Each structure stands twice: as structure tokens, then as C-alpha cells.
Amino acid sequence: MKLTITASNRDRLQIKDCKRSKLFIDSIQWQTYKDFELLIADGGSSNFEEIKDYFANFKGRIPMRIVQLKIGEAFERARLNNVGIRNSLGEYTMTTDVDMAFGKDFVDTLMKNVSPGVLVESRTLYWKNPFVKKLYDSKLDLYNNIEECKSGRIKKRTTAGGCQCMHKDGWAKIRGFDEKYIGWGSEDYDLMVRAQKARFKIKWIGESRESIMLFHQPHSKNTKSDLKYQKENKKLLSKISAYSVNPEGWGGIKDEL
User: Fold this and answer.
1) Could you give the number of structural domains in the chain?
2) To 5 degrees, how large is the angle CA 144–CA 147–CA 149?
3) Does 147 reside within a domain?
């Protein structure tokens, strides 16, 4: 298998009656590139068994599976990303989130840019609620009419959370995301800085509105706790000294440097 796409999750991916999750899964299944799998790295969702059974019996062209490492009260995106990386079957692994949606040629474009010693990132376009409702109500069609779906704000390069892809040797060299980051925010930029310290080349895709194929679906947020962790995470960015982190193990696996 050439690629594993892994996404962190806890109680956000829903199998029944959730148009956001349906679009995420549909946009994985409709990719023109086929040599990859989807892996959900779950932090203890109440519907874990339901997702597991659904994936096991799914008849789509792209295989899907889920692994679990239960985490504490706070969400740990960095750690769960690492769980996905360490359970990847692919030569390359891409991290993302379960609230994303992908144009049909996204993975094909991604794989045309990967190689050992390269970190591939993608810019992300953020949809707003009034617009995404048109998608959910089938008034717009991301698969057939992607240009009509490019309404929203494209985040800066410093907000790199939508996509990170490296060869398995690259992930092993820098030892994944730094698990000192709690919640979400800054762990993706930290990764990019350390990849540069390790002399990896950074390649960006989706740099223009014409070429962008990665979309973020809106969802509710726990603003108070999110801001608390983001404030602490930003302090860690000023302390990056080496490209390798997690000396006691990463992704739930204990090992040595």
C-alpha cells in the first residue's frame, strides 16, 4: 500500500445522520487515486464499536479501519496523529481531520509531490455554515463542480493543520508530532519547523484558489478550553531546539531514540 490517510477523532465522526461525516467519507471514497487507505485514530469515542463495524462491512473501493488509544479529558490531536502514523500500512502517511472534505483529485495531486525527504502540506479553504448548508442540501456538488465550492477563507501557511504527508522514514526520524501539545493548535506548525531542522524540503499544494482541493467543514467548538490550550501551545513554539521529540515513545508505543 502506497499511502495511509489518518485522521484523529473523538466523538466527532458519526456514522448515522451526520452530513459532515458523510461528506468526509464520501470524499475519501471518490478519489481518482486508489492505492491508499483511511485510518481513524480514535481517542475513546462512545461510538467506537459502531464505526469499527461500519468500516469492516463497508463495500467501497478505499479500505477504512479504526484503531483506538483512549486519552484523558483533554483532546490530544498530536498524540492521536502519532497513533495513526504508527499504525499506518502505507509507505507514506498523511495526517488530517475528520471534518475535512477533499476534491476528487486531491490524493492524486498529493502523491505526485511526495518523495523521501519531503514534507507535503496543503493550504485549506474554510467553509462557513450558510455555504456548507448548500452542500448538505445537495444544491452544490463538490465531486462534479468543485469550482463552485471554493467559497471561503484560505488559511495562511502558518496554519498547516489540514494535511501533513511524509515517507515513513521521515516520520520515524522526527518521531511524529510533539506530544507535549495538548488540544489542537501549533502542533502542526511545530512539525513543520522541526522538519526544516531535519533538512526536509517543504512542498505546498493548493497554493491558489484555482488549485485548492482541501476544505474544512464548520463545526461547534469548546472555545474556552480551546483557547486555554492554544495559549500554552504557543509558548512551546519558542522552545523548539531539536528536530526529534518524544524520547519516551510516541503514538502509544514505548521505544528508544
Assistant:
1) 1
2) 85
3) yes
Instruction: Give the β-pairing of 64-68 and 36-42.
Output: parallel
Query: How does strand 125-126 pair with strand 214-216?
Result: parallel
User: pLDDT for 85-120, tens place per residue?
Assistant: 999 999 999 999 999 999 999 999 999 999 999 999
Spell out the residues 6+ positions from residue 144 whose beta carbon is closer than 8 angstroms to its own: none
Q: How far apart are CA 182 and CA 216, in angstroms?
A: 21
Instruction: Cite the DSSP H helix spans in 48-182.
Output: 48-56, 77-86, 106-111, 129-136, 168-174
Residues in the chain, overall count: 257
Residue type, 85: I
Domain range for 221 is 3-237
CB of 28 within 8 A of CB of 3? no
* pTM score over 0.85: yes
Which residue type is seen at 254? K
At position 99, the amino acid (one-letter code) is D
> Is 202 part of a structural domain of the chain?
yes
